[in-house]
Amino acid sequence: MAKSMISKSVAGISPSATESTSFLANQMKRQGIDIISFAQGEPDFDTPDHIKKAAIKALEEGFTKYTDVPGIPELRKAVVDKLRRENGVQYEDSQILIANGGKQALYEVFRTICEEEDEVLIPTPCYVSYAEQIKLTGAKPLFFETKEENNFRPTLEEVQESYNPKVKAFIINSPNNPTGSVFKEDQLKKIATFLINRGVYLITDEVYEHLIYEGRKHISVASLGEKEKEMSITVNSVSKTYAMTGWRVGYAAGPKDIIQGMINLQGHATGNINSIAQKATVEALNGTQEPVQKMLQEYARRRKYMVEKLNQIKGIHCQFPDGAFYAFPNVSGLYGKKYDENVIDDDLSVARFFLEKAHVAVVPGIAFNYPDYVRFVFAKSMDEINEGLNRIEKEIELLY
Ligand code: PLP
Questions:
Q1: Pocket of ligand 1 contains residue 176 by CB under 6 Å
Q2: Ligand 1 centre and the CA of 349: distance in Å?
Q3: Residue 51 belongs to some domain of the structure
Q4: 3-state secondary structure of 65
Q5: What is the pLDDT along the chain (400 residues), one digit of tens a residue?
Q6: Which atom, in ligand 1's list, is nearest to the CA of 250?
Q7: Are 54 and 280 in contact (CB under 8 A)?
């Protein structure tokens, strides 16, 4: 029998569920069907002009060669300045790595610190790529469920119950994708202290830090004290904040030896990230932050509109998210309903019902290890939100 062409580790990962939903929606679009997609987690805004201009300037000046693997010095410095100014944490330039998006930075963290027997503790619902990236290193993702009545915030008790000595790292994602949940400082401190005392690293994914509503405050765990800083690796990116998803710029900050390991890994895997995108990111971080505020105001309007409207639809119940640009309603109220020959009996079938009947794409909660919910993106125009939710409401009315 021929040997399998695919390695065990790659055979063990599943395709990104958010991407496959978008893929299906795009396929229907190509068939001429008018799909409204709330599936893709990215801003609908264009990258602000002053950032694009910095890229054009770099290109015109011929800034088109390889750069230092961990990033150009002015960008590493801009990240150091940003982390001090906005997050209250002081790093040296050598503690910063510029990667191809937060995604690559995360993968490199796991690859650098995880051994085969290790476990990485992840509160759910969680971002789709953590578990698969961890599995690729040979380590094991260890999930525990947060509860809606706690606003999806992990509690110390849940962490204590889930902890075992194999746990090497804990993932903090605040604001969270898909719930928007934001950690409170006292809770973060307690959980961090419990874990640090057991030698557990804190991997903190802060890509939504600026998208936060109603006076909530983002706290970087690394800013809570020297020990917290020594034991945490902060991952961030310009994708969501600056509407720069396609530019692929992210970064990591952390202990020197870990960052150096990640640099060595990246040096052989991809090398430096795109030189022009690095120049654009210097401008994003150092230049005016006015466009960010404008986008935030618009997201706040859409958040209110979407969540209020979702709560008016039969069978759907939705909390207001503290941050990010996702609504994550419970849809189990629709279970047992029938359409055509189908019975709605889980979040996947709800997503299928929305797509087939209302031509609206959402991501089922199972993609985030949290069934009975679906994720809607509100980084969409008000018209699309209105039309998409009207379609869903109309189709649901027909079920009753
Ligand atoms: N972390 C979270 C929680 C995300 O939602 C995403 C993107 O959706 C990423 C990281 C990666 O984003 P990027 O690679 O574009 O920086």
A1: no
A2: 26
A3: no
A4: coil
A5: 566 688 888 888 877 666 666 777 888 989 999 999 999 899 999 999 999 999 999 999 999 999 999 999 999 999 999 999 999 999 999 999 999 999 999 999 999 999 999 999 999 999 999 999 999 999 999 999 999 999 999 999 999 999 999 999 999 999 999 999 999 999 999 999 999 999 999 999 999 999 999 989 999 999 999 999 999 999 999 999 999 999 999 999 999 999 999 999 999 999 999 999 999 999 999 999 999 999 999 999 999 999 999 999 999 999 999 999 999 999 999 999 999 989 999 999 999 999 999 999 999 999 999 999 999 999 999 999 999 999 999 999 999 9
A6: 16
A7: yes
Domain boundary among 286, 308, 327: 286
Instruction: State the Cα–Cα distance between residues 22 and 362, nearest whole angstrom.
Output: 8
> Would you say residue 59 lies in a domain?
no
Question: Coil, helix or strand for 8?
Answer: helix
Q: How far is the CA of 1 from the centre of ligand 1 (A)?
A: 41
> What's the 101 CA to ligand 1 centre distance in angstroms?
7
Judgement on whether residues 245 and 308 belong to the same structural domain of the protein: no
Question: Which domain does 146 fall in, by range?
Answer: 65-286
Tell me which of 286, 312, 331 is where a domain ends. 286
Kindly state whether residues 147 and 277 are assigned to the same domain: yes
Residue 324 is assigned to a structural domain of this protein:
yes
The single-letter DSSP state of residue 286 is H
Of 149, 209, 155, 143, nearest in space to 177 by CA: 209
Q: Are residues 102 and 243 in the same domain?
A: yes
Q: How many angstroms separate the alpha carbon of residue 103 from the centre of ligand 1? A: 6
Specify the ligand 1 atom closest to the Cα of 249. Answer: 16
| Ligand 1 neighbour 41 (Cβ under 6 A) | yes
